[in-house]
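call fold(seq) -> tokens
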Amino acid sequence: MDLKIIGNFIKSQRKEKGLTQVELATKLSVSEKTISKWECGYGFPDTTLILPLCKELDITANELLSGKKLSSEEYQTEAEKNLLTLKKQQEQDHKFLLTLENVLGYLSSITFIILVFVASFANLSTWVRILLIVIGFIHIVVGIHFCLTIEKDAGYYECQHCHNKYIPTYKQILLSMHYGRTRYMKCPKCNKKTWQKKVLK
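ret:
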């Protein structure tokens, strides 16, 4: 998926429809800067905006992803190619998010330990000690929340019994026993509890 080609295609289709960047931005409820970013190849529309954008430009999602108008013969071939490209991009995004989760987890834990250590052993007044512990506690709670959100949304969990892949709820992630990225959860398909591993595909 070449963002420059897609950007030029968006620009040409916008002009063909007689729309300015401001007019298109207004129709999609985004900023003019966002449209400009897409057209310059520095970004791609969010998944929620792909279909509304295609409707405004009178193109298909497949044509948008291909960066050109497609004949009926090309359509199926390009559709399969675009699906594979999107799948690979999604896997890369999920890998990045899981790496980010590790970084956030370590940073939150280290910050909490440092603040508690300083509050315990430094020569400080009582109110400063309490403030440092409270800040450390807030820091680690917020960090854990973001880590759990990433853990829920990036990739899937696979049931070891029926091999169903699914995205669990935040509550399931929060309350399940786990080691690493393997969690003991109930599968929504077979309703059996197993140790389920995180998978990206």
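The domain at 3-70 is CATH 1.10.260.40 (434 Repressor (Amino-terminal Domain)).
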